[in-house]
Amino acid sequence: MLQPRVEDKSHVSGKLSVSLANHADEVAEAQRLRYQVFAEEMGARLPDAATGLDRDMYDAFCEHLLVRDDSTGEVVGTYRILSPSQARKIGNYYSESEFDLVRLGHIRNRMVEIGRSCVHPDYRSGGTITMLWAGLAEYMVRNSYEYLIGCASISMADGGHNAVGIFKQVRDKHISPVEWRAFPRCPLPLDAIDASQDVQLPPLIKGYLRVGALVCGEPAWDPDFNTADLLMLLPMAQMNQRYLRHFIGR
Fold it and tell me: What total number of domains does the chain contain?
């Protein structure tokens, strides 16, 4: 049974609340939502598809943040959280399957990884995302962690044109310093893909950048999910303080 390592207080906003999963049944609810979004909606190839759950070896080492509709009891949003101590137990961070993180070695003991972010299609409003960020912010502050990393995914259904365009749009203003740079193991051929069309930043990436996150370099291609992934790094000391007060104040 998973045990949260922070006081499990819920932030309530209307009919939504956010908390950490307390037992395996709640983790399964998150995995079921992930399957619905990643496999049924996005067409990802998942290893345990017959179960109707998205699960892998990292889940047992992670804490699972859940946004729930209190009127129905349904889990409508989720993130999974891998702390530094749990990453040491499993041997790496999930994002290391896509990126070489050698330059982040000096901050690993203070670095939390988030991933498998998804929201039910009926709840893709600012409120649900705000609830997830409120839970993440409280987790980071309560545990005194200093850095947050995670992959932000962009669909490759168009052959990668949008992904390359998005990277070229954000790299000038939001690229990380060289000491926080990561290197994709399967990089996109940026120069071979046309990126002349107009692009719109996905809400998740826009949200990361708004709170102060940095892009740690070129995108990686994830063939199982058919996405281009940008590794994002948020130093908590550089987080937009207005947003931090907003999230924690909830």
Answer: 1
**Is there a domain that residue 223 lies in?**
yes
* Distance of alpha carbon 202 from the chain centroid: 13
The pair of structure tokens assigned to 88 is 């040491």
Residue 20 belongs to a domain:
no
Contact yes or no for 245/180 (Cβ under 8 A):
no
Q: Which helix (H) or strand (E) holds 29?
A: helix 24-35
Domain assignment present for 41: no
Tell me the C-alpha distance between 40 and 79, whole Å. 18
Phi, psi for 6 (deg, rounded to 5): -130, 160
The closest alpha carbon to 114, from 213, 14, 240, belongs to 213
Record the tokens describing residue 17, joined without a space: 């609340």
> What span, in angstroms and rounded, lies between the C-alpha atoms of 138 and 8?
10
Model pLDDT, residue 36: 94
The Cα 19–Cα 43 span in angstroms is 28
Q: How many residues does the chain have?
A: 250
For residue 98, give the nearest of 234, 235, 236, 225 by alpha carbon.
225
> For residue 155, what is the domain's CATH number?
3.40.630
Domain assignment of residue 215, given as a range: 79-249
Predicted TM-score of the model (pTM): 0.88
In the prediction, which pLDDT does 12 show? 42
C-alpha to C-alpha distance for 249 and 174, rounded to whole angstroms = 27
Question: When comparing pLDDT for 158 and 25, which is higher?
Answer: 25
Whether 16 is covered by a domain: the verdict is no
Count of Cβ atoms closer than 10 Å to residue 28 Cβ: 18
